[in-house]
Specification:
By secondary structure, this protein is of the alpha/beta class. The chain has 15 helices and 22 strands. The strands form 5 sheets. It has a 9-stranded mixed sheet with strand order 2-1-3-4-11-10-9-6-7, sandwiched between helices. The chain binds xanthosine-5'-monophosphate.
Length: 514
């Protein structure tokens, strides 16, 4: 039912494939990624208006290296090959390749020429910087292609067959360091492929609402609300689409931050008046099951299973439910090609869907990236403060209390964690860091308060910079701010007499301590 123009990106395993998809969407054109191992049928069914072939680490023509699916050129839509994509086009269409004598990696100087539509509004014969990441290059053009760019080490750095609308570049226009890269992609999308920038969050909302209505009919939908951004945005869409047919179950495991459970409930009732919200306060059950459990994996498993148990019990009380809403987003379902084989990431927010309920799935965000989900949340009227909340692990504070979890230790951590966030906010750092929180260690150390000896808990501060949580580094916070946080925690949180700062990066450490 998608009505937008669509660009298909064929993934040959480049670390930048998702970035190409992002750049295309930023230009207002809907894009989807398929692994290069996808069957021809899937490529045809996708019915793209244009195709981009990504880069990749393999050597074209070597045994086991990905080849060009015949369906791609048969569709006769404009094609742009990037890096491996260019080499693959050259190889398949009769050109020749070799390992460049002067391997160019990273920044290099590109000179474009030939008045190609790909270079519209880009200065010709005046070198500028682009990013390269492959040692192989095209040395002989396939028939009907002409060269349209070079670098000091690469004679054919871009080629084109304008009669067939096939273009290819040896460098990466999608990376930020490539000058005029965005302009090149725009030239391909709008000039060459003639697409319209019709992918907007607003039009997406209308379409998502219509699709949900059509799929659900007069049945009911159950949704597990976690208080996170994704499930809340799904709730907002479904609330608009089907109103009282939506039932949200908020399993409050009691492992949230200070006042968070109540805040989530109050935000939901303010912004989605009339929402059927089942707030299940299950802290006692969770704490009971976690009693004395110290192993991190054990804790995670217990919390996951207990969550499903409670959700299942509540959902079964709703007789008209035929669908399960989920906050699955695009990065959760992208199948990516890797030289080692096809890896399919699949993630379900509700861990194990109770099978005997045999519910249909409603996943309105499955085509969106995280920042698009946030933009959608704003479009749907959810408050900015909520939309920009830090990521918070499903098992909550249980994985930030090292050792056994108890109500007393939760209370200590909640207070310390509140101070960390409060001070970051007051100092204008809250949005600058990826995450900033406190961890309660299973240690006691000696201190002195007034004239008395103390023997109390240690709190660690974990404050990190990151763009995607895959890698992270500890934030170089001003000493004064660290001093303010530490001073307040030791003064205000009873039972803590020492604060330390975690200065480890990810990898090899992780962001959370458990
Ligand atoms: P790590 O500790 O692996 O965390 O570096 C990476 C990011 O994921 C968050 N995180 C979780 N999120 N369920 C979640 O939804 C979880 O079980 C979970 N564990 C870690 C973590 O806060 C960080 O942003």
């Amino acid at each position: 039912m998608t009505t937008y123009s669509k660009v298909l990106i064929i993934d040959y395993g480049s670390q930048y494939t998702q970035l190409i998809a992002r750049r295309v969407r930023e230009a207002g054109v809907y894009s989807e990624i398929l692994p290069c191992t996808a069957a021809d049928e899937r490529i045809r069914e996708a019915a793209p208006s244009a195709i981009i072939l990504s880069g990749g680490p393999d050597d074209v023509g070597e045994e086991g290296a990905p080849t060009l699916s015949p369906a791609i050129l048969e569709l006769r839509v404009p094609v742009l090959g990037v890096c491996y994509g260019m080499q693959l086009l050259a190889h398949t269409l009769g050109g020749a390749l070799s390992v460049a004598q002067d391997r160019e990696y990273g920044p290099t100087e590109l000179t474009v020429y030939g008045a190609s539509p790909l270079w519209k509004d880009i200065p010709e014969n005046a070198p500028f910087t682009v990013w390269m990441s492959h040692g192989n290059t095209v040395t002989a053009l396939p028939t009907s292609f002409r060269a349209i760019a070079s670098t000091p080490g690469v004679r054919i750095a871009a080629m084109a067959d304008e009669s067939k609308n096939i273009y290819a570049v040896q460098f990466h226009p999608e990376v930020h360091h490539s000058t005029h890269g965005t302009q090149m992609l725009h030239n391909f999308l709008f000039g060459i492929a003639g697409l319209k920038p019709d992918w907007t969050v607003r039009s997406f909302v209308d379409q998502a609402i219509e699709e949900c209505r059509a799929k659900v009919g007069d049945a009911d939908v159950v949704l597990a609300l976690s208080g996170g951004v994704d499930s809340t945005v799904v709730a907002a869409i479904l609330h608009r689409a089907i109103g009282s047919q939506l039932h949200c179950i908020f399993v409050d495991h009691g492992l949230m931050r200070l006042d968070e459970g109540e805040e989530v409930v109050s935000m939901l009732s303010t912004h989605m008046p009339g929402l059927n919200l089942h707030h299940i306060k299950a802290q006692e059950l969770f704490l009971d099951k976690l009693k004395g459990v110290e192993d991190p994996e054990q804790k995670r498993k217990i919390i996951g299973h207990t969550f499903i148990e409670v959700f299942d019990r509540e959902a079964k009380k709703l007789p008209k439910v035929r669908f399960l809403g989920q906050g699955t987003i695009y990065p959760d379902i992208i199948e990516s090609y890797s030289a080692k084989g096809v890896v399919i990431k699949s993630h379900h927010n509700v861990g194990g869907l109770p099978e005997e309920m045999s519910l249909g799935l409603i996943e309105p965000l499955r085509e969106l990236f995280k920042d698009e989900v946030r933009a959608l949340g704003i479009e749907l009227g959810l408050p900015e403060e909520f939309i920009w909340r830090q990521p918070f692990p499903g098992p909550g504070l249980a994985v930030r209390i090292l050792g056994a979890v108890s109500e007393e230790r939760l209370a200590v951590l909640r207070q310390a964690d509140f101070i960390v966030r409060d001070e970051l906010k007051k100092a204008g750092w809250a949005r600058k860091v990826w995450q900033g929180f406190a961890v309660l260690l299973p240690l006691r150390t000696v201190g002195v308060m007034g004239d008395a000896r103390t023997y109390e808990n240690v709190v660690a501060l974990r404050i990190v910079d990151s763009v995607d949580a895959m890698t992270a580094d500890w934030t170089r916070l001003p000493y004064e701010l660290l001093a303010a946080i530490s001073g307040r925690i030791i003064r205000e949180v009873k039972g803590v007499n020492r604060v330390v700062y975690d200065i480890s990066s990810k990898p090899p450490s992780t962001i959370e301590w458990e």
